[in-house]
Specification:
Keywords: Repeat, TPR repeat
Distance between the termini: 112 Å
Number of helices: 30
Structural class: mainly alpha
Shape: elongated
InterPro entries: Cyclin-like_sf, TPR-like_helical_dom_sf, TPR_rpt, Ycf3/AcsC/BcsC/TPR_MFPF
Strand order of the largest sheet: 1-2
Strand content: under 5%
Pfam families: TPR_19
Protein name: Tetratricopeptide repeat protein
Radius of gyration: 37 Å
Length: about 575
């Protein structure tokens, strides 16, 4: 018996036969062969065996899910893919793409869109990124999708806004510098380690003219993080303001050597170098930036052009601004600088001083404000963050005429942040009595209340806006007061003193709502305006009056009286309607 078994074994198992090794790799290869033959049923069985042999390998589950999807069993495929993401490997991004395909085949296009977005979030440059982008476009264009994408964008915008509010960027980007200071001081007090808030508070101090506080805040960041590029840039700008050339030279040195890899940081370093007058270093920094952004990036083109213009390479600057002019949003800025280059070349100048900021120069912006004040509702533009930021900057750094325009523009904006900006400006010791009066008039027009601080020859004083007389506006222009004096004398001479109060309200309303807002408007002949004012007041009081009689008494033409009274009446009526609407609201 034993010998038979031995002989049988010897014949049945020859020594040159190799035992078959059954493992996951074997069944994977077997499954792939079945797939190539389109034998899906047997392929499923093969890939099921891979899962049995290697239950901890998520790839095996994905392969099986793929074959199930080919068979049309999308629910079973989704179960496997969700199992992988929830229990095995949450970072296996391709599962989201597979799920998107399955949901699309099931007709659930919103779910497909959600999963495509999730895949692109996790792996924007992954193996299936191009297919995912194409599929997303098809879902939106051909199947009426886009709801998930819109929800995602709203969620991202909300999250970004909340983060921006937390670190103060929201207020800075919207030009609300006074609010930014108040908010960020609270944030830093609650969390002294919040570096982003400290950097933004440094900027907010700078924009509100608190330069010592701004520098101290930048230094506090550098004490914690000596290599913080935002703080290094802020410190360099502040030292430029203080005129400390030795300290500035030391502060600029690390900015000259650093090579940031993030485009936004590289941009800030380049702009800072240009702002502090290191134009050659700025040119080199912008050239490094060219490796990180597209070659036609507007900020890159303008930064390179500005550096060349400041260095005297006007031909290079001109060529770059011509490229910038192809961008519709930047064409006006490019045309402005191209005209400056042409003027400089005609005058034989070797260089042109150019700001590195990609925005319209202050003079043009304020001219635009002036025009828009006349042609459109302030509500259309007063919330424009770039314009608001420009106004605040110009209030602090502009020449006298620029400041006068800004004061009037902020009087129209009229919100709490504009009020605070005007109050801060009023507290400066370097503005004269005329600018102080104009600022007080703007605050009175806004209905501002509370204490304000201003400087007199003997030093700073405090007063309450409620105590500032409403007719302070008459002090701004001698002709404005002359008109009132003529009208008041005429009423007193004819025993019409009961109408003096109404006449004063009419005249002040017209000044606050029209003449004060436009520096171009002038009163050439006070007699015409006094006659026009009286005609409106008498008519509203039902006192018999003829235009020709009033015109004769003041020695003016009927047409000039009529013109003045019509303009005045329109403004007064509009102001009354606005006041009524404010009361109703």
């Amino acid at each position: 018996m034993d010998k038979r078994r031995h002989r049988y074994n010897k014949v049945d198992r020859p020594e040159n036969v190799i035992a078959m090794k059954l493992d996951a790799s074997y069944f994977f290869e077997r499954g792939m062969r079945f797939l190539q033959r389109n034998d899906l049923a047997r392929a499923v069985k093969a890939f099921q065996r891979t899962v049995e042999y290697e239950p901890d390998n998520p790839v095996n589950y994905c392969n099986l899910a793929g074959v199930l999807a080919e068979l049309g069993d999308f629910e079973a495929s989704n179960e496997l893919l969700h199992y992988v993401l929830e229990h095995m490997d949450p970072h296996m991004s391709e599962c989201w793409f597979y799920l998107a395909n399955n949901y699309a085949n099931l007709g659930d296009y919103d779910a497909a869109e959600e999963h495509l977005l999730r895949y692109l979030d996790l792996d924007p440059h992954g193996e299936y990124a191009a297919e995912a982008e194409e599929m997303l476009a098809i879902l939106i264009d051909e199947f009426g999708g886009g709801r998930a994408l819109e929800r995602r964008r709203r969620e991202e915008a909300r999250a970004e806004t909340m983060q921006a509010i937390q670190d103060g960027r929201y207020f800075l980007e919207n030009g609300q510098f006074e609010v930014a200071v108040e908010w960020l001081e609270q944030v830093v007090a609650a969390d002294p380690s919040h570096i982003a808030a400290r950097n933004n508070l440094s900027l907010a101090y700078y924009y509100t003219g608190q330069y010592d506080e701004a520098l101290a805040m930048a230094e506090s960041v550098l004490e914690r993080q000596p290599d913080n590029l935002h703080a290094l840039c802020n410190r360099a700008i502040l030292l430029q303001h203080f005129g400390d050339e030795d300290a500035l030279r030391r502060a600029v040195e690390p900015l000259r050597k650093v090579i940031p890899l993030h485009p936004d940081i590289a941009m800030k370093v380049a702009i800072t170098l240009g702002f502090v007058g290191r134009h050659a270093d700025a040119l080199a920094a912008f050239r490094r930036l060219a490796r990180l952004v597209p070659p036609d990036h507007p900020m890159l083109l303008h930064g390179l052009a500005a550096a060349h213009a400041n260095l005297g390479n006007l031909r290079c600057a001109e060529a770059l601004w011509r490229q910038l002019a192809r961008h519709e949003d930047c064409s006006r800025l490019a045309d402005y600088h191209l005209e400056r280059v042409r003027q400089a070349q005609a005058a034989g100048l070797q260089s042109v001083s150019v700001s590195y900021q990609l925005d319209i120069p202050v003079e043009l912006q304020l001219a635009e404000v002036r025009d828009r004040l006349q042609t459109s509702s302030p509500d259309e533009w007063k919330r424009d963050p770039l314009l608001r930021a420009s106004l605040y900057w110009s209030l602090r750094h502009g020449n006298r005429e620029v400041r006068q325009r800004v004061i009037r523009a902020l009087a129209v904006v009229g919100d709490g942040d504009a009020e605070q900006a005007l109050k801060s400006f009023l507290a400066r010791s370097d503005i004269d009595a005329s600018l102080q009066e104009q600022t007080l008039v703007a605050l009175k027009r806004m209905g501002a209340k509370g204490p304000v601080r201003l400087w007199r020859a003997a030093g700073p004083i405090e007063m309450r806006l409620e105590d500032v007389r409403q007719d302070i506006i008459l002090d701004l222009q001698p002709q404005w007061r002359e008109v009132w004096d003529l009208a008041e004398e005429w009423l007193a001479a004819r025993a019409l003193g009961s109408l003096v109060g109404q006449a004063r309200r009419f005249w002040l309303t017209y000044l606050y709502d029209d003449l004060f807002l436009d520096l171009r408007k002038r009163i050439v002949k006070p007699e015409s305006w006094a006659a026009g004012l009286l005609y409106v007041v008498l008519r509203y009081a039902n006192v018999p009056v003829l235009q020709r009689d009033l015109a004769a008494q003041f020695g003016v033409s009927v047409s000039s009286l009529s013109k003045c009274s019509s303009r005045m009446e329109q403004v007064v009526l509009r102001a009354g309607w606005r006041a009524q609407r404010s009361r109703e609201e």
